[in-house]
Amino acid sequence: MTAINSSFTGYTLLIIGGFIMLWAMYTLIKYGEGLPMNAYPPKKFVINGPYHFVRHPIYFGFIILMVGYFILTKSASGLWLVTPITILAIIALVMGYEAIDLKKRFPNHKITTLLDLPKNTKDTPDYNERFASLIWVGISLFLCNFINIELVGQAVHEHKKNIFLDFSIEKQYITLLSLIYIMFIPFVIRRKDLLLNWIIKSLMALGIATFTTLLYPYLGTQYNSIQCGVFYFVPIFLILLSAYSIYKQSKLLGISFSMIAVLLIVLQITYCHTTILHLVSSIVIFLFVDNYFSFWYFLRKGAEKIANSWQEWIFGKVRVINHGFYVGFGTFLGIFMAGILVGDTYTWAILVFAIIVIVFSALWAQLIEGSEKLKRPYGYYGALVGIIFASLVVWAMGHNVWVIIGVISVFMPWVQSIGRFRCLVNGCCHGGKVNNPNIGIKYFHPRSRVCGLSDLRAQLLHPTPLYAMLWLFPIGLILLSLWQNNFPYPFIFGLYLILTGIGRFVEEAYRGEVQTPIIRGLRLYQWTAILSVIIGIIMTIIKVEVVPITPDFGWETILSAIIGGLFTFFAMGVDFPYSNARFSRLV
């Protein structure tokens, strides 16, 4: 990671961020008659001072201050690791608690600021909305370029990989023209819904490009030119999105803007070392982002179909439930892939580790949720507690515990994602009520916990298991990239705890399970998510030597994966419906 060396920038951001924070705190105390903390929230709704410009000025100022401090102290890890994690944690706090709490306390007030996005209507946007749209896309474009060039691009450039756009100083007019083209878009679009759509898709596209760059630098950095700087390089996919947004409004005007877009794209790829890669990747991002709602509709309807797909087969006193196949396959896949990374030497230790973790997830759930209706529930945080005991057993077997924890952390997000299919079928981890039919799903099957325990049959509910899948999948990609780049095992495990904890905090806020206790305004698992993040932070500072491991697998890896899959399938998909003993029934 590259440190930014600029005392002027550091001090400037420190002063600006600190001023915004103090101004916002003063405004909250004076006009809100409360304190700037969730324990003693303001009694009145505040729209004065900095709250007129942005929604969360204290957090906004804190982020600026933090960036300034890390630049001033030349801290690469602070700037590139601590800052984004802090931003994610702030977003989670707002989405998972503050926004919900604010709506409860002030139901008749709506937050409106100068930097708000336009509403989803066919009205004509005013100039404030146009400028706000330009600011959001402009800031996101700058951050995308900044990360691509300053963090990743410089490192790739030092290895003399000629994948950048070959723009000399004289040819920078190409990127400048692209920037001017983008700046015109908010002022040409004549409908608020189209303008909002352009902003959302632009931010999504820039986010995907940045994420790709961080995971696969040699793929992502081909969007940028080191010589162009971070201020005005415009990727091809952003030009395509802008032209298509105009085309949706007016075919005639859209054709004109499309012709200009084609000219700008041709100029870009003319000076590109990887023309085909550059063009194809941009088109893929464009197509995915432009159809994001169709993808969401497909996922949501699929989740609803799976949620009502319960099937069971009874053989004497034994019942087999179809949702067990999901978790069985997830465990098989996790052990198999982990075994490939570390080889047969560790494969039996991985199996033992997985079995102990599952046992502890059952014990935890018994303490928290066990009842006459829930004879054999499972709890994720029990699995995390089980890691301690599993580590001791693996250590007693003579294996390097950190290797096991590290490799399991890599694939756990994907194992959890597959396990969420069981949650959909079983009705556990279900969401609370939601009014938007484009978001919610309905449960109808009488075996589902939603119908039998929560009494929410045929109600539109947040598809929280689907939310979890969408969050966990990219986490797995991040952790796999860290493993491939030889990051320390405690760091991988720590980041796993941090990222999954942040996601779980938000997810829990939209759940609707009646059996989950609420403690001081937060659901129990929101507190455990906070604890998970804290433990994860501690883990990231533990130094452990990375052991050289060559990926390989043999029959032992396959056999242990099969045994682990069968064990999980039996534990979570097979029960004894006519028994009333503890751990006997799954439903």
What does this protein structure show overall?
- This protein is mostly helical and 587 residues long.
- It folds into 3 domains: 1-113, no CATH class; 118-290, no CATH class; 301-436 and 449-575, no CATH class.
- Helix content is 65%, strand content 2%.
- The protein has 20 helices and 5 strands.
- The chain has helices spanning 7-32, 57-72, 76-105, 127-158, 173-188, 192-215, 217-220, 236-249, 251-270, 275-290, 292-307, 323-342, 344-368, 380-396, 401-426, 449-452, 464-484, 489-509, 524-540, 555-573; strands at 312-315, 318-321, 518-519, 522-523, 574-575.
- The strands form 2 sheets. It has a 3-stranded antiparallel sheet with strand order 1-2-5. The chain has a two-stranded antiparallel sheet with strand order 3-4.
- β1 (312-315) and β2 (318-321) form a beta hairpin.
- The longest helix is centred in the first third of the chain and has 32 residues, at 127-158.
- The protein is globular and about 75 Å long.
Class of secondary structure makeup: mainly alpha
- Count structural domains: 3
Could you give a short account of the major beta sheet? Answer: 3 strands, antiparallel
% residues in beta strands: under 5%
Radius of gyration over C-alpha positions, nearest whole angstrom: 26 Å
**Helical proportion?**
55-70%
Through-space gap between termini: 50 Å
| Average pLDDT over all residues | 87
Shape: globular
Number of strands: 5
Q: Unreliable stretches, pLDDT < 50, 5 or more residues?
A: 159-170
